[in-house]
């Protein structure tokens, strides 16, 4: 049963019969030994008569400790090689799974790219869990041939869309998985066995986020951001008119994270989701998109002044087509007007593995208007009829994505001179969508009086079937949910739903034994290395690398399942759409360090250039979470952290005091980053759990 490049015995697939009758006979079309990123046997295949594909990664036998680990891809999924490549390595990938003592399973969740399986159709159970569960189940059949036995334990985890679907795998795959770790998930609750699609509660909220960006513009939004940053006034409404105040307040009530306001100006995954669901929404909810412009009770009809000169509905012609590689490498696109567009547009193309993909077009003569989110439709040429949406823009260039075939093709086949329509009427209607599609969740109570909606209502739309089915909370095994306090894509209230589901399905006593919720403070949907940075403040001075936290949580999940060591949850309170964490590590719990920083004894100091500033900080770890292994000061917001303190006595709490002098006028955010490790190993390279805190210094 040895594993290695010298002994790849043929693998039998004929002896396996899928438990789920939808899936045909499994096949293997690639079986080879690979040395990167770590040595492993690489097995790729699928199930006949389906679009389901899988990849298995089996390490040498001496590195395998009897575990199966199954990461679930984010977004809509659709790829069976995400975690085994570069993008997956960012979140730990195969190296992390080997550290955890497992082999790794990947599935494309039953579909290729953003398309549905032609035979499976719109069945959300297929994409939500059935394809993943059957793939992992088949991996056990292969593991028996490679290692001589099946895995003793199975674990499934994933973030974002993977956080949406990984609990479903545990709920419906009890013979495969013993534990699950969803992070940044969310969705509504239904009975176990449901075949319905997921309700679009969170995507509805994105419309409110887009609307705040649109209404406030860069200048007023900068004031909101400053007010809510460390040392700010805490009043984000100063200087706003009545309608701007109403829309910002609605955004907060819906759960947008306080302190993350900069991300309102940087829609990334939220705008991608709009491009992916816009066609479906306009088809399934056509009455709303008409009513918004034609009936009383809707802003488009009653208050066109709120839309101002943002409206676009203009025809022109394509004057240039741009590939992802050209956008990335050509100096022509290095200017500030492309700064917001470039990182995310290139990331999406990289994830598709095709930098030759034509992702943008130049269209001249378009009125000023509001371009982001606009429909971009080809009217002539080979691609006539293709509907895309503007994910971001710069100058006269529109960078786009779309649904299904449009997502795969983008601007392939488009030629200079093809006629094109830029139309943002659907997007502007979506900006007020939240008013007219309220669910029974208490978050929406501010849009009701005496139980009745204030605005005309339309049914709450459903998400793509690729997102799966609602949660039931009914499962065997253990589930640890990790959510982020500063996630602009899955807002903090989404972190509360699954606990409610478990308590409803199994009771509070069972939930206390089988469910654990941890919060990661100062974590966004993406890590600081991929997040945009506010002016004068590097992203790594206000956001943490949460992937290390996830790795430690996976180790804790393993100990919970296999040894009965119950993990420490994070204590919190929730009110007005806001999650609040206790100020001390002892009260808060969980595993993340707690950090506080002051300048001249407060959150804000105003000083003259050359005047010393007294800096003080406290960092502490929750009980049982290990010790502090590094403290780092960053004085100017550049994120270089030039001063590092490495303790040698495994402290659980440290108090720091120093002085710093600023020679030039300006606004500076001084930050302390604290890192802890479960074993207190100052040389550890993994499972290093971070947190940050800042204070503001204004130098005149």
Description of the molecule:
By secondary structure, this protein is α+β, with helices and mostly antiparallel strands. It is built from 17 helices and 27 strands. The chain folds into four domains: 26-197 and 466-473 and 488-495, Rossmann fold; 200-308 and 436-461, no CATH class; 312-423, Beta Barrel (Thrombin, subunit H); 585-699, Immunoglobulin-like. The longest helix is centred in the N-terminal third of the chain and has 28 residues, at 201-228. The strands form six sheets. Strands 1-2-3-5-4-6-7-16-17 form a nine-stranded mixed beta sheet, with helices on both faces. Helix 7 packs across helix 8 (286-294).
- Write the CATH homologous superfamily of the largest domain: Alpha/Beta hydrolase fold, catalytic domain
Helix tally equals 17
Q: How much is the average pLDDT?
A: 95
Question: How many angstroms separate the termini?
Answer: 72 Å
CATH level 1 class label of the largest domain: Alpha Beta
List the helices and strands and how they pair.
Blueprint lengths: L25 E9 L5 E8 L5 E6 L8 E5 L14 H5 L2 H7 L2 E6 L16 H24 L5 E7 L1 H12 L6 E5 L17 H28 L13 H12 L15 H16 L1 H9 L4 H4 L10 E11 H6 L12 H10 L6 E6 L11 E4 L8 E8 L2 E5 L3 H5 L9 E5 L1 H6 L17 E2 L2 E2 L24 E7 L12 H10 L1 H7 E6 L26 H17 L9 E3 L2 E3 L4 H4 L5 E6 L4 E4 L4 E9 L6 E8 L8 E3 L7 E9 L4 E12 L11 E11 L1
Helix pairs in contact: 3-4, 5-6, 7-8, 14-15
């Amino acid at each position: 049963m040895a594993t290695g490049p010298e002994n790849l015995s043929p693998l039998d697939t004929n002896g396996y019969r899928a438990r789920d009758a939808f899936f045909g006979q499994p096949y293997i079309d690639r079986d080879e030994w690979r040395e990167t990123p770590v040595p492993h046997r690489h097995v790729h295949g699928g199930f006949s008569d389906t679009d389901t594909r899988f990849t298995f990664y089996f390490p040498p036998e001496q590195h395998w400790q009897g575990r199966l680990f199954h990461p679930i891809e984010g977004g809509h999924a659709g790829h069976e090689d995400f975690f085994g490549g570069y993008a997956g390595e960012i979140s730990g990938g195969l190296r992390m799974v080997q550290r955890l003592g497992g082999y790794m399973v990947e599935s494309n969740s039953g579909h290729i790219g953003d398309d549905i399986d032609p035979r499976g159709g719109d069945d959300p159970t297929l994409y939500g869990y059935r394809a993943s569960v059957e793939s992992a189940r088949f991996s056990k059949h292969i593991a028996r041939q490679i290692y001589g036995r099946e895995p003793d334990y199975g674990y499934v985890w994933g973030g974002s869309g993977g956080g949406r679907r990984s609990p479903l795998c545990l709920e419906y795959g009890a013979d495969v998985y013993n534990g699950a770790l969803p992070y940044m998930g969310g969705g509504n609750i239904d009975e176990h066995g449901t075949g319905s699609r997921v309700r679009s509660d969170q995507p509805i909220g994105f419309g409110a986020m887009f609307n705040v960006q649109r209404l406030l513009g860069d200048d007023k939004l900068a004031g909101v951001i400053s007010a809510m940053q460390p040392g700010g006034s805490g009043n984000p409404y100063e200087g706003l008119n009545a309608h701007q105040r109403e829309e910002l307040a609605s955004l907060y009530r819906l759960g947008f994270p306080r302190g993350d306001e900069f991300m309102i100006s940087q829609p990334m995954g939220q705008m991608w989701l709009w491009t992916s669901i816009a066609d479906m929404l306009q088809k399934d909810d056509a009455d709303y998109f008409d009513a918004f412009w034609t009936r009383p009770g809707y802003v488009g009809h009653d208050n066109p002044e709120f839309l101002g000169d943002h409206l676009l509905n203009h025809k022109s012609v394509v004057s240039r087509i741009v590939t992802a590689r050209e956008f990335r490498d050509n100096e022509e696109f290095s200017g500030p007007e492309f700064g917001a567009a470039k990182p995310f547009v290139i990331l999406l193309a990289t994830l598709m593995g095709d930098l030759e993909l034509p992702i943008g077009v130049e269209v001249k003569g378009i009125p000023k208007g509001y371009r982001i989110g606009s429909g971009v439709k080809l009217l002539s040429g080979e691609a006539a009829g293709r509907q895309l949406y503007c994910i971001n823009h710069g100058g006269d260039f529109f960078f786009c994505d779309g649904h299904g075939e449009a997502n795969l093709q983008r601007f392939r086949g488009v030629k200079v001179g093809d006629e094109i329509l830029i139309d943002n009427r659907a997007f502007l209607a979506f900006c007020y969508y939240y008013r007219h599609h309220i669910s029974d969740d208490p978050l929406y109570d501010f849009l009701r009086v005496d139980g009745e909606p204030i605005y005309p209502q339309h049914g709450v739309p459903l998400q793509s079937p690729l997102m799966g089915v609602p949660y039931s909370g009914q499962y065997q095994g253990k589930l640890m949910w990790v959510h982020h306090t500063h996630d602009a894509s899955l807002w903090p209230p989404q972190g509360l739903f699954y606990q409610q589901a478990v308590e409803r399905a199994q009771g509070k006593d069972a939930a206390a034994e089988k469910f654990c919720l941890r919060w990661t403070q100062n974590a966004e949907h993406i890590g600081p290395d991929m997040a945009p940075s506010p002016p004068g403040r590097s992203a790594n001075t206000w956001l943490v690398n949460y992937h290390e936290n996830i790795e430690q949580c996976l180790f804790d999940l393993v100990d919970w399942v296999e040894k009965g060591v119950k993990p420490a949850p994070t204590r919190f309170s929730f009110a007005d759409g806001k999650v609040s964490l206790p100020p001390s590590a002892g009260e808060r719990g969980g595993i993340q360090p707690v950090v506080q920083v002051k300048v001249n004894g407060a959150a804000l100091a105003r000083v003259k250039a050359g005047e010393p500033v007294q800096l003080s900080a406290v960092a502490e770890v929750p009980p049982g979470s290990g010790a502090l292994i590094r403290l780092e000061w960053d004085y100017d917001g550049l994120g270089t952290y030039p001063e590092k303190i490495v303790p040698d006595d495994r402290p659980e709490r440290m108090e720091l005091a120093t002085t710093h002098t600023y020679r030039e006028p300006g606004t500076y955010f001084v930050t302390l980053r604290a890192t802890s490790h479960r074993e207190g190993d100052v040389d550890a390279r993994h499972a290093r759990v971070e947190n940050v805190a800042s204070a503001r210094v204004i130098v005149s």
